[in-house]
Design a protein that fits this description.
By secondary structure, the chain is α+β, with helices and mostly antiparallel strands. It has 30 helices and 15 strands. Its cofactor is Zn(2+).
Length: 668
């Protein structure tokens, strides 16, 4: 549903963010100034004792100087209440006394129809709950008692019973004045092919109501009491209310529990969820009779940043885990992950809790493994890598798997972890002369090339004895504190370019919208730089004045950036009235940074491949990346040729910084 222009602005004007936030925090009145709309409190998003969480009531924004949480009243409501955007809008609109905008007639008609179907579903839930308590539900009650589900648990999950009657529910709902078409459309009954009277879908089954995130009954699940039934579990069909691939069992209660700090545990079935909740794991959900879908993964990540997939510890459970991993790989993003808890002995959560209690399940959850561990185990389990060809095949498979990750930062970290695991497997991390026994892929002897030890290599050999060069002078404290001295040697140029890119954007926020797409494709190596980049992108759609105001609240990251000597003296930073010059400098720095990283990435991958068998495309790829680097410098030179002395001054400035570092930053 789209909102009319100005609706959100009016809503934010009517709602005081200090009142919204004040329901969740205790203000530090010694630090706050209510008259100026300036409020401070301990942050509700991370554990702390100091008041680093700031609310500006006049501007309608909050910001934490500890964890960098930020946003407006809607953002705060979404994060603390774990609700969606439109739900947050509706909540604030009710508080502000604002009428939600009317929907278009077709959408309103569909919504009204869904509301009618939801009412029919509620009547069905009541009917089946009643049947469980009657004489015909004795068998079902006995079964639930054997599963240790008492009356309180049955009431919490609204468990019911469908007697083995062809039209028991149909006749009961029709007697309440509900039209047969609605009963069929809700998925409760089906029409026979010969066109006769509708018949109940659920017969001789224990009934589990399925509710959406808002608590509406949208479908039913049923477990057969007859062990010879064709399907042990049966879910309602797809309807206007129910899409089984877009919902989760126990979604709403789990969302509330996770908002209070509970882990999100994803298991396989209704009884697993109920057993977990009864054992104190309130954040338990389950897919609805299907393998986990992409939409369900996004639902899970909206509830919790790192769901734990708890699956039976048998072969089927492992296959299910690997299917989830293959689905999740392209969807991964920073801060959104999955962990996997494989239950021992082929047990499911219900069986494990009955056997070992809550402590047994807690131990399994605490030992949940990251996705990369399962990926690695899949590729090496039961295999022997005693030949270059087999190792090359493993490398090829792993590269193909990692290439499916779209987020560049996560792809890099996965590559690093896989590389570490590979080195451990092939015995590359053992010390000189040592040997890893039991690694069948390790070399037969201790020979072969080894990287030089720290302090060794040709330079140390040449430096022994007569003619040793004098030790270099120690750097001054002021020199040690500079970015050029602190950055890794081979990446000092990139660190310099990161600071210049950010500094230019801080000095010229009008350029943010123009360079948004290119900035979004770069991940900065320095965590402080990456936070500033994220802050800039978060406000890129706002006017330059708002971007500047947001950056002014960036705290230590901004102060550290602007304190760098080369930033304070940079021409595009000093000349704040010359936007054209800043634009040219920014474009050049972005192009060179992207090209340099492309070269390094290809070179690192090439070095890894050269440890095994190099393919024919290896040299070509390095050549292409190197040409891209040179082309970046050439194209920027052509694009900025009209800058004349300005561009030459900027280039000379950057070159002097690099030469100072390369020539020995430690001179006194």
């Amino acid at each position: 549903m789209s909102l009319p222009p100005g609706f959100l602005d009016e809503l934010r004007n009517r709602v005081s963010i200090s009142q919204v936030v004040g329901r969740k925090v205790v203000w530090d009145m010694r630090k706050s100034n209510q008259a100026k709309g300036d409020f401070w409190a301990p942050c509700p998003f991370h554990q702390e004792k100091s008041a680093s969480f700031h609310v500006d009531d006049r501007k309608g924004y909050y910001y934490c100087f500890g964890c960098q949480a930020k946003g407006d009243a809607l953002t705060f409501l979404r994060e603390t209440e774990n609700v969606g955007f439109m739900e947050a809008v509706e909540i604030l609109a009710r508080e502000a006394g604002m009428q939600m905008p009317a929907r278009d007639p077709v959408a309103a008609q569909k919504a009204d129809r869904r509301s009618e179907l939801a009412k029919v579903m509620e009547e069905a839930v009541k009917h089946y709950r009643l049947q469980l308590s009657m004489q015909g539900g004795a068998v079902a009650r006995d079964y639930l008692a054997r599963r240790r589900l008492g009356p309180e648990a049955q009431a919490r999950f609204e468990i019911g019973f469908a007697p083995d009657q062809r039209q028991g529910l149909f006749n009961a709902l029709k007697a309440k004045g509900i039209a047969p078409d609605l009963i069929v459309e809700a998925g409760l009954c089906a029409r026979p092919e010969d066109g006769g009277a509708p018949y109940d879908r659920f017969r001789g089954r224990i009934i589990y109501p399925i509710r959406d995130a808002r608590g509406r009954a949208i479908s039913l699940g049923g477990r057969a009491m007859d062990p010879n039934a064709r399907a042990k579990y049966l879910n309602g069909p797809e309807t206007a209310l129910f899409d089984k691939g877009r919902n989760l069992y126990n979604h709403g209660p789990a969302r509330e529990a996770c908002a209070k700090g509970a882990p999100l545990i994803v298991c396989e079935g209704y009884m697993d969820v109920i057993a977990l909740v009864e054992a104190g794991f309130g954040g338990a959900v389950a897919p609805l009779g299907t393998a986990v879908t992409e939409e369900q993964l996004h639902l899970m990540w909206r509830i919790h940043d790192e769901p734990v997939i708890a699956l039976d510890g048998d072969a089927a459970g492992m296959r299910a885990a690997l299917r989830v991993i293959d689905l999740a790989l392209p969807l991964l993003e920073a801060g959104k992950a999955l962990r996997f808890a494989m239950l021992p002995g082929g047990q499911d959560p219900d069986e494990l809790i009955q056997a070992g209690g809550r402590a047994a399940m807690e131990q399994v959850i605490a030992g949940a493994r990251p996705m990369v561990d399962l990926l690695w185990a899949r590729e090496i389990e039961g295999k022997v890598f005693d030949s270059p060809e087999r190792r090359a095949a493993l490398d090829k498979t792993l590269r193909a798997t990692i290439s499916r990750i779209k987020d560049p930062s996560i792809k890099v970290h996965y590559g690093e972890e896989i590389k570490r695991l590979r080195e451990d497997l092939f015995g590359m991390n053992r010390s000189r002369g040592g040997r890893d026994e039991g690694l069948r892929s390790a070399p037969r002897d201790g020979g072969g090339w080894q990287p030089p030890r720290e302090g060794g290599g040709w330079q140390s050999a040449r430096g022994r004895g007569f003619g040793r060069a004098p030790a270099p002078a120690l750097p001054l404290p002021a020199t040690r504190s500079t970015l050029l001295a602190a950055a890794p040697d081979e990446r000092v140029t990139e660190a310099l370019r990161e600071t210049m890119i950010l500094a230019i954007l801080v000095a010229h926020p009008v350029l943010v919208a123009e360079f948004e797409a290119r900035l979004d494709r770069i991940v900065f190596a320095d965590p402080g730089h990456e936070r500033l980049r994220g802050l800039i992108l978060a406000h890129c759609a706002e006017p330059p004045e708002a971007i500047a105001a947001a950056l002014a609240r960036a705290g230590d990251d901004l102060e550290k950036l602007l304190a760098q000597p080369h930033v304070r003296s940079a021409p595009p930073v000093l000349r704040r009235d010359d936007t054209d010059f800043a634009r040219m400098c920014l474009a050049e720095e972005l192009a060179k940074l992207q090209a340099a990283r492309a070269v390094r990435s290809e070179t690192e991958e090439a070095m890894e491949e050269l440890a095994g068998l190099a393919d024919e495309g290896l040299t070509w790829r390095i050549t292409q990346a190197t040409q891209a680097l040179h082309q970046a410098g050439k194209s920027r030179l052509e694009d900025t040729s009209d800058l004349g002395e300005d561009r030459e001054a900027m280039s000379a400035f950057l070159q002097s910084l690099l030469e100072k570092h390369g020539g020995g930053s430690g001179s006194a």
